Amino acid sequence: MKRDTQRGAASANAPAGSATSAAPAYADRGMPDGIRSVTSRSRASRNGAVVFAVVVFVAAFGIVLAVAQAAFGEIGLVALAAAVVIAWLASSSVHIVLEWEKAVVLRFGKFNRVAGPGIVFTWPIVEFYTLRIDQRVATTYFGAEETLTSDLVPINVDAVLFWMVWNAKSATVEVEDYASAVAWIAQTAMRKAIGSTTVSEVATRRDQLDELLKEAIEEKLNPWGITIIDVEIRDIVVPKELQAAMAMEAVAERKRNARMVLAEAEKDISEMLKDASEVYAGDADAMKLRTMHLAYESVEQSGGTLVIPSAFSEGFVDNAPGEGSPSKG
């Protein structure tokens, strides 16, 4: 896959105290294939901070020239050189740190403090404003290609990781390139999680796999001052030759479940019919009434006509003492 990685920190090798040493630039430093970090692809602009540094430089430069003009009556090469040096020292001592950033300041190469947001002052040459940490939520797209599950099925899985730096000091002094570390650990954790589950579990238990990945990744990154907000699996691709077999297996499983449900229903119905037969067995008239109700319901639903034999109705008429003749009132 295409590598498109950006780092959220400036190089620590930049000149001491310079404003450009804190410029955000994510370098594609050893990102694994299939991983694309879109961390710090900022929508906000830092033009205001750059303009502020330029204004400080120009103001200091102008003040030194004005003082030289007032003191000596002319501006020579020495005054120009002094103005450039003093302006550079002034611009490298005053910095603008944006709301979502933290500035890591080193003094003689040793960690001194975390500053910002707002205006940050540093001692020229003595203190190094070498790193600016973006503390907004970052996203890293990563994937595991041709990874074997526990039942030896190669699958491709794509996911998105949402994370942020909560401890600027740890992210600076504990790990060289925290953005690349996040990507590498995420991919390794995914391969390990997939290797411990079957292909059916990967396909049907996405939520559990998301939680498993989140816990495994956060356990490794937490000592570096990085927290994991969420992990979302985007897509799972199974080899085409296995898709038909898995579809047939799913159909068979659903048919089996349907038959089991039908068998349970028939069992319940048979038990109810058994209870009903015991009730009707001791009362012939009740059985006849139930028969008439069933006949009425069938006629009502179908809208037809029911023809009842005379012998059926005679069962509901009391017989007289004389056999076969109706009683007389």
How do the strands and helices of this protein lay out in sequence?
Elements: E1 36-37, H1 47-72, H2 77-91, E2 94-97, E3 101-107, E4 110-115, E5 118-121, E6 127-134, E7 138-148, E8 154-165, H3 168-173, H4 178-195, H5 199-204, H6 206-221, E9 226-237, H7 240-281, H8 284-302, H9 310-314
Antiparallel strand pairs: 1-7, 2-5, 3-4, 3-6, 7-8, 8-9
Transmembrane segments: 49-72, 78-98
Family: Belongs to the band 7/mec-2 family.
Coiled coil: 248-275
> Percent range for helical residues?
40-55%
Give the DSSP E fraction (strand runs of 2 or more residues). Answer: 15-25%
| Approximate shape | elongated
- Compressed to H and E, one letter per element, the order equals EHHEEEEEEEHHHHEHHH
What's the N-to-C terminus distance? 102 Å
Strand order of the largest sheet: 1-7-8-9
Per DSSP, the total helix count is 9
Q: Estimate nothing, just give the exact number of structural domains.
A: 3
The CATH architecture of the largest domain can be given as 2-Layer Sandwich
Main structural class: alpha+beta
* Arithmetic mean of pLDDT: 77
The unreliable regions are 1-30, 320-329
CATH class of the largest domain: Alpha Beta
Strand element count: 9
Largest sheet: 4 strands, antiparallel
Give the CATH topology of the largest domain.
Answer: Tetrahydropterin Synthase, Chain A
Region (Disordered): 1-28
Domain Band: 92-250
Family: Belongs to the band 7/mec-2 family.
Coiled coil: 248-275
Explain what this protein looks like in three dimensions:
This protein is 47% helix and 20% strand. It has helices spanning 47-72, 77-91, 168-173, 178-195, 199-204, 206-221, 240-281, 284-302, 310-314, and strands at residues 36-37, 94-97, 101-107, 110-115, 118-121, 127-134, 138-148, 154-165, 226-237. A four-stranded antiparallel β-sheet has the order 1-7-8-9. The chain has a three-stranded antiparallel β-sheet with strand order 4-3-6. The protein is elongated, with a radius of gyration of 41 Å. The termini are far apart. Mean pLDDT is 77; it is low at 1-30 and 320-329. This is Slipin family protein.
